[in-house]
Amino acid sequence: MGCEIDVLVLGGAGVDTVVRVPELPLPYADSYLIDPGIVTRAGQSGDFVALGLGALGLRTHHVDLIGDDPEGELVRALHRHRGIPLTAVASARGTKRAVNLVGPDGRRLSLYDATRAGDGDPLPEATVRALAAASRHAHVVITQPFAGALPALRESGVTLSTDLHDWDGISSYHEPFALAADVVFLSTTALSAPERTMRSIAARGRARIVVATAGAEGALLLADGELTHVPAAVPPGPVVDTNGAGDAFAAGFLFGWLSGDDPRRCASYGAVAGAYACTVPATRADAVSREVLLAACG
Known about the structure:
It contains 9 helices and 13 strands. Strands 5-4-1-8-9-10-11-12-13 form a 9-stranded mixed beta sheet, sandwiched between helices. It has a 4-stranded mixed beta sheet with strand order 3-2-6-7. Strand 10 (183-187), helix 6 (194-204) and strand 11 (209-213) form a beta-alpha-beta unit. By secondary structure, it is α/β, with parallel strands linked by helices. 32% of the residues lie in helices and 25% in strands.
């Protein structure tokens, strides 16, 4: 079939209801007046990675389980509007959804609807194999049932990446993703010893590169056994929301990696993309352009 797709993104399609709160943690009260308003929009981890890659000029295709519900239509509309092909496998559980509480400093608390996640809906292996056969690379979001797709993806010969988000380095749920991917992203948020965890991922799995993001403190990059610190990029505007910053970092990094750039430059791309994402209000889904990214990195 040939490589018609640069990056196949698997999983992570959904809808967030964004609520601006006066502070986090939010003190108990009978009620709060929310200004500016409460907004529901499409965009979860896989959506943000797909949007980021598409904005950087990569041919991107997204596949996930989507319900026949209002949330599913929001996801479909987002992809139509951004020109990102979407393979929507029918889900009886419904489209994934969450509530994001966003503080004045841009920090976020996410409440995920667990009734719309799990192993109940099958993912046709034939669909995964057909899409993988047309792809250069696959980015797998750690939502189910995509752990089950990892063997077929590996057999297809595509390179793999994944984002473990706030993994604590212990939970067994994340391990299939961590050990199957060639490029692994994660956050330092829940790690007591980031370097140890990163080296363990590389030693036990297939990862050639492991990146641990640390927000305003930058990121740690493990490549070819060498650990280096990558400084955070200066945001091009006020920081209003950190939602999607890690997904943007992954998109920027993969843009460089698939272009053949060295890992340090890839991480610089990721830092710039992540910083840009922090300036985008939670009520919008947006990503840095290729022109802006290249100009910022020199």
